[in-house]
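User: Sequence for GNAT family N-acetyltransferase below. Tokens please.
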Amino acid sequence: MTDITIRPLQLADHAEWRRLWTAYLDFYNTVLPENIYQLAWKRLFTDGEFEPKGLIAIVDGKAVGLTHYLYHRSGWSEANNCYLQDLFADPAVRGKGIGAALIDAVKQEAAKLGVTNVYWMTHETNATARKLYDRVARRTGFIEYDLL
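Assistant: Structure tokens for GNAT family N-acetyltransferase:
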């Protein structure tokens, strides 16, 4: 595999971002209405400390992965936390370091702001991703609950 380039999303990336994010949502059997796609894209380019950010992975000139992340306050520390919300690598390039490179890029971006706590969740059945996560991060043991 050639070099992986990770860079912030650009407005010109819209079609590739949409393709990758749709594939990510498909993986989780999720369908979102068009207005949410539009809102998510708009938010990714809205200035603000707590607005979501996006990175895209490029290999041989082709978009092959993406991540969305955001910062939020914590009652446990002075610095913000970074929540890595979405992470996706095209199935054709899985196992080639795309996910690890995206995670590392988020970690580096967070570090620029003095943020050391980068965390994320995945579904317990996502065995492929969990192999990567077990290698690059520590499992906290916390169990998620929500009120949806």
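The beta strands are 4-8, 53-59, 62-72, 81-89, 118-119.
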